[in-house]
Amino acid sequence: MKVTIDIDCTPEEARTFMGLPDVSAAQQAVVEEWQKQAMEAMASMDPQSLFRAWAPGGIAGGTPGWEEFQKAFWSSMTNPGAAKPGK
Questions:
Q1: pTM of this prediction?
Q2: Contacts (Cβ under 8 Å, ≥6 apart) of 12
Q3: Which residues of 72-87 are buried (b: 16+ CB within 10 A; e: fewer)?
């Protein structure tokens, strides 16, 4: 035998019915603090620092990884209709 019961209630009503605490105020405070810290961190970083952190191998002019990326990019732009090697 299988019995199914559907209960139509809001999350707040379910939390109250089950005796769970309302933590929405604490959650809101944590989210606001995270947002504040994220905005402060972003304000202190300049675009060049962000690019240096995100770019493969750092920024241009000193790392082989970045130079290889540039070569691959520019070689694909010089003749986009050419057949690819191995195809």
A1: 0.41
A2: 22
A3: eeeeeeeeeeeeeeee
